[in-house]
Inverse folding.
């Protein structure tokens, strides 16, 4: 999801999306630690998405 799409969401929807992304990052880290993650590029992509959501939440005040 890009920044323009995220900006269209309400603060509550962003918080839900943030919780979902953090859970996904936890799962990715767990699978990476147990050598079950094939596409490791998902880790930094998920981190960037979390940072993007946090930035937009701060912009909204």
């Amino acid at each position: 999801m890009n920044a323009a799409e995220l900006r269209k969401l309400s603060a509550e929807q962003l918080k839900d999306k943030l919780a979902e992304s953090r859970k996904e990052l936890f799962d990715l880290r767990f699978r990476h630690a147990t050598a079950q993650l094939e596409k490791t590029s998902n880790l930094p992509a998920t981190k960037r998405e979390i940072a993007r959501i946090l930035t937009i939440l701060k912009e909204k005040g």
User: Anything to note?
Assistant: DSSP finds three helices and no strands in the chain.
